[in-house]
Design brief:
This protein is an alpha+beta fold and 66 residues long. Helix content is 55%, strand content 12%. It has three helices and two strands. Strands 1-2 form a two-stranded antiparallel sheet. A hairpin with a 3-residue loop joins strand 1 and strand 2. The longest helix is centred in the middle third of the chain and has 15 residues.
């Protein structure tokens, strides 16, 4: 398993709170790409899908993400 970072967890918590990668990025004062990359890295490290990105409708957490 790859190393997890607090930043990845912070961004994931913001995604869960806002249900949006864009809003999570604003909340964390970083780019949307940085949040998306961190989410992908976190999912890869854990070996699960945490959130389903729904174009134009935000993000829905999977059972693992919840």
């Amino acid at each position: 398993m790859s190393e997890l970072t607090l930043r990845q967890l912070e961004y994931f918590a913001a995604i869960a709170e806002t249900q949006s990668v864009t809003q999570a990025a604003r909340l964390c004062h970083v780019s949307q790409g940085a949040v998306s990359l961190a989410l992908g890295q976190l999912e890869q490290a854990l070996g699960v899908t945490l959130a389903m990105r729904q174009r134009g409708r935000g993000v829905a957490l999977t059972a693992e993400g919840q």
